[in-house]
Structures are given as C-alpha cells and as structure tokens.
Amino acid sequence: MTNSYLLEVGVEEMPAHVVTPSIKQLHQRVADYLKEERISFDSIKEFATPRRMALLISGLGDKQPDIDESVKGPAKKIAQDQDGNWTKAAIGFTRGQGATVDDIEFKEVKGVEYVFVEKHIAGKSVAEVLQGLPGVITAMNFPTLMRWGYNNLQFIRPIRWLVSLLNDQVVPFKILDVEAGRTTRGHRFLGHDVELKQATDYEDALQADFVIADQAKRKQVITDQIDAIVKKNDWVINKDADLLEEVNNLVEWPTAFAGSFDPKYLALPDPVLITSMKDNQRFFYLRDHDGKLLPHFIAVRNGNSDYLDNVIKGNERVLVPRLEDAKFFYDEDQKITIDEYVERLKRVSFHDKISSMYDKMQRVAVIAQLLGNHLGLSDEELADLDRAAHIYKFDLTTQMVGEFAELQGIMGEIYAKLFGEKDDVAAAIREHYMPISAEGALPETKIGAVLAIADKLDSIISFFAVGMIPSGSNDPYALRRQAFGIVRIINARNWHLPLMGIQPELAAAFKQAGIELPYALDENKGQVRAFFLDRLKQLFSGEKLRHDITDAVTDTKADDIANVIEAAQAIDAHKDDADFKETIEALTRVLRIAKKGKLDKEITVDPTLFVNPSEKKLYDAVAAVQAAAADRTVAENFAALRSLAPVISEYFDENMIMDKDEKVRRNRLAQLTILARLAALVGNLDDLIVK
C-alpha cells in the first residue's frame, strides 16, 4: 500500500524573499531524511505562501524494509580463550548486537576466523519515522532568525500551527508548545480554521478558504489578471520577473488592480518614477506603445475584490508623497554644481580605516590612468576617463540618492548630462557599479569598463591592506563579487592587464601623483593574487571546465588574468586531440627533471657541449619558440609547445640527462629549464591528468 502525507508549518508572515528558498530547503531536507530512513516515496509537491510551508508527499511506503545483516566481531583467538571459553570481548560484542554467545558463528575472512552474528532489524512503520520530522524542521537555516516567548528555538518567524496528516490519520509530534494536527488556517482576513479529513484535501480545502497554496498557480493567476487589465487599457507592461516573484510571495489570494497618479510627475526621469513604484511600493509600471511611461500602475492586493475602490485610492495616496519628495529632490539637486558635490565627498567616509570617498576617487583616478595606458587608450579617451574618475561618486551627496539609495550611479549619469558632461563620462558614472550581481550586466562603454575595474581594484587592495579580508561566508563589502566582476569584464573584453601583481606599479604611480596611502600597499600582495585566482576558479567552474585544467592554469605566477583565461581555453580546446597525451607527457617529463636541476635564474646553454644531434635540434626549436613568445598569445605559445613534443621525445631517447660529465649534465639541465619556463607561460602542466 502507498500513502499520502501532508506536512504544513504555519508561521507568522515571512519576508517575501525568504518564501521560495525556505520551501525548497524544507523539500530537500525532508527528502533527504526519508532517504536516510529508507522510506520510499514517489513525489513531493511544494506549497508556500507568506504564512505557510507545506509538502504533500505521495507514494510513501508503509515501513522501512527489514534488514538482515551478518555483523563481524573479533577474531576467534580473541573471542575464546585457550580452553574454548567465551571472553569478555565476545560477550560484549554479542550484547551490543542484541544477541547472546549462542548466536555466534565462525566465518573465515582472508584465512582468519572471525566471530559473526546474524542480525535481523525489523523496519519501523512510516508513521514512526515521520514522528522524527520536528528535528528536520527545526534544523532549517534562514538569513534572519527569531526567538519568541521564553524559548531558545530560532526560526524565520514564530510557528503558530502544524499539520501532520498521513492519509486520514494525524501523525503526532510537537515543536515547542505547538502540537501537530489536522487543522490548517485559511486567509488571515477572509478565511477560517480548516479541518482536513485527508492529506490530499489540502489544496482544494484552502482554495475554498481564500488561499491559493500552489506558488505556480498563484503566480499564473496574478499574471492572467495583470494581462487582462493591460489588454483592456491597451497598455504595455514589463512584467519584471523578480517583482512578480516578490508580489507572489506577499499574497495568498491575489487581486490585481490599476491605479493612477498625476501626469505632472512624468517630468521626473524614468528611473526615479520606476524606483518609486517598483522598489518602494511593489507596483508594476506601464508604458504606451511608443515606450513612454504612463501615469498609471498595476498593483496586487492580498484579498478579494470587495471594497477595491478604497484599496485603489489608498495605494494612489501612498504613492503621491514618494513622487512629491522625488520631485523636490530632483529640482533642488540641480541647484548645486558637480564640483560642490565632489567637495562634499571629503566628509563622506569610504571606510574609517581607509579614507574618505573623495580620497578614494583620487586613488581610482591614478589607477584608471595606469590601466588606460596599459590598454592603449587614446588621449581623448584618457581625458574622459580622468574626468569620470574625479567625479564618479558625486551623486552620493545628492538629496535624491540620499533618499533613494538604489539610484546611485543612475542619478549620477542623469545629473552629469544635465550639467553638460560628455555622454561617455556620464555613462561611466553609472557603469562603474557594474556588474551589480555575479551574473549581472557588464559595462557597455570602454571608459565605464576601465573605471569599473579601477574602482573595484582599489576597494579590494585597500580592504586587504587593512586586514579586512573575506573569510568563510563573511564578506561585508562584497569583495568577492567585485573581484569576480573584474574577471568577467576582462574575460568579455579580452583585456591584458597585470592586475595580480600590479601593487609595485601602483605604489610608484601614487607616489608620483603625491598621494600618501594610510596603509602598506605590498603587504597582502600574495593574498590578493590568491583571491583573484579563486575568482578565476569560480569562472571556470561556471564554464564546466575540467578540475585538472583549472588547477594547471591557476597554479601560475602570471599577473595577467586574460592570460590565465586564454591558457584554460587553449588546453580545453585541445584536450581531446589525438596528440594531447603525448604532448603533455613530454612536457611534464621536462618539468620534473628541470625541477630536480634547481638551476639559478640566469642560465645559458653552451652549444659546444652538445654530444648528440638531438641536443642541437631541441636547442634550435626552443630558441625559435622563445624568440617569438612575447609577441604570441597564450594559445599560440601552447601550440608552439605542442609542436615540440616529437623533438622532446627524440631528445630523451638519445640523451642521458644526468650524464657523468658535470658540464654536459648542467648544460642539458639548462636546456630543459629554459623549456620548462616557456611551458610555465601556459601554467603548471604537471597538474594535468592524461589517460
């Protein structure tokens, strides 16, 4: 017989962003628990609203399968004394297995006799297993936790009711003073307590009491309602997926409606209006067919259509103060110049251990010029980059950004254009924050991309220099995201910049610019390099790159992030080639022998000491590769190294490296060391696994 089981955890309203991750976590934890307890099941269906997490498990087995196992004990010579009497070891072993010495059998394992007991473990009933679910529930993790009453339990919100129903029978358990039963709760304002006869009644019973428990169905209801309003009014809507998800997790019985605001507010920039509606009020904004914002919005209430006119008026009334504030800030902000805003940044702290925001901009301006020169920017581009770097944080001191922090950078671009700045300078002010998430959009302009790298690089180096280095999950200044952003920008643009060892060059540039640093720039250079290499590993992991290739290319002394990426791509592109194994084996043999040689940095090869033709052949081939290495890409250097494989094989066939003659031996080690250093341009090929 198969069974259906309903588990519901009823809580006070959870934050919208927690609802979906929480039900996914509960699903995974319960599934893992059932598997560990050897209870079979067919499927688990999720239900979630702001007030509940529920799972309907179908196809549950009746019980755990019985287990018959042969348990091995001590060796016979330990289990019995010389007279054949059972020792304490044997007696203790059988007692631990719930048996007696009469149950002992002897079996031979690899020529030695051991004590064995045949053990039968009867499987527990599914109801007995399900009584262990409180431990699964209370072990859940949340971004924020609450205690309530005089209890020590921490949970996302206080637990108010529990449902535990196996078919039509309650499986009793208790969390704190809340006992599981068969009673769930309908909509907070429209519904009542609902007694369930069967576990499978859950969804329909709640639907009848103004709760759409299925998240996907609830979201579809919202979508259909919005679409109907948009179609009726001939509007155009951007159904923002994140906003739709958030709204869906704020309601149990959705009713969408349209509201309006005074058209005079359309004089505000679109981002200001959108932020006021979307981010502050969870409203969907609307456009006409020409893409212009309309003085209307769509919102979703948690309830039915009763008294909807009052709800609409209330939402319209709440929006007006936000728009009025925005209009005031927008008008007032334009009365002050950019230079005045920049001057105010001297009183804005970047971090109390590092500097003001103004001082950060001075450092970033130096870094940006250094990077721009590395990239060969034109004089005009360098001038625009310098202007952007000296003002790019100015909007932090505007009233608009003070009230709407999510508009930082966005308002900077808008105000910069109003104040007459060039378009690429204005765009860079917005783009320097990008990407704003691990997979977020990258800067589109060259100036914006350089400024984004410079700003993030300064933050990483500065925080590392004062010992504020991310550890574990602790990364309050999002340095991992910023470093990964740099890696992504470089990868997208294939820019060659020596970022992983740039500190000495930066120190010289700061000194020349007259900038005194409140920290030592070089002290954490190795940690910064390792930090960037970890972000490269993150990039390669996302691209499903083989682990050994990742290890090979990140086990490097290279400073150029783009070179590491190129090395990974080059090796990955040829890993399935017919000659790949031969190439890597030849080169790794070179690496191993060269490592044993331990020769100094400055080495030379003396052709007059060559004994066999293969030495001259390898010497000429390596010299040709070496001469062109600096002008080649990593991929081209890897191709050149691959072409050496037959020459290397011939060399090893004909020569004994550790020759009795010390001069010949050192000369051959010198040849291999030079070749090993060329191979190091790609990475540590010794880490590659070839089959």
Tell me what you see in this structure.
- The strands form five sheets. Strands 1, 2, 3, 7, 8, 9 and 10 form a seven-stranded mixed β-sheet that branches. A four-stranded antiparallel β-sheet has the order 13-15-16-14, sandwiched between helices.
- The protein is flat.
- Helices cover 48% and strands 14% of the residues.
Topology:
Layout: E1 3-11, H1 16-36, E2 43-49, E3 52-60, E4 67-75, H2 76-79, H3 88-96, E5 104-109, E6 112-121, H4 126-130, H5 133-138, E7 159-166, E8 169-170, E9 174-175, E10 178-181, E11 183-185, E12 193-195, H6 202-207, H7 215-233, E13 236-237, H8 241-248, E14 254-260, H9 270-281, E15 284-287, E16 293-302, H10 308-333, H11 338-344, E17 349-351, E18 355-356, H12 357-374, H13 379-391, H14 399-403, H15 410-418, H16 423-431, H17 446-465, H18 479-493, H19 503-512, H20 525-542, H21 547-554, H22 561-574, H23 580-597, H24 613-629, H25 634-643, H26 645-654, H27 662-679
Parallel strand pairs: 7-10
Antiparallel strand pairs: 1-3, 1-7, 2-3, 4-6, 5-6, 7-8, 9-10, 11-12, 13-15, 14-16, 15-16, 17-18
Helix pairs in contact: 9-10, 12-13, 12-17, 13-16, 13-17, 15-16, 16-17, 17-18, 18-20, 20-21, 20-22, 21-22, 22-25, 23-26, 23-27, 24-26, 24-27
What is the CATH topology classification name of the largest domain?
Hypothetical protein af1432
Mean pLDDT: 93
Q: What is the CATH architecture annotation of the largest domain? A: Orthogonal Bundle
In terms of DSSP E residues, the strand content is: 5-15%
Structural class, judged by helices and strands? alpha+beta
In DSSP terms, counting alpha (H) and pi (I) runs of 4 or more, how many helices? 27
Q: Bin the helical content.
A: 40-55%
The biggest beta sheet is recorded as: 7 strands, mixed
CATH class membership of the largest domain:
Mainly Alpha
Radius of gyration: 35 Å
The tally of beta strands, per DSSP, is 18
Low-confidence stretches: none
Instruction: Tell me the distance between the termini.
Output: 50 Å
Morphology call:
flat
Question: How many domain regions?
Answer: 5
Q: What's the assembly state of these chains?
A: single chain
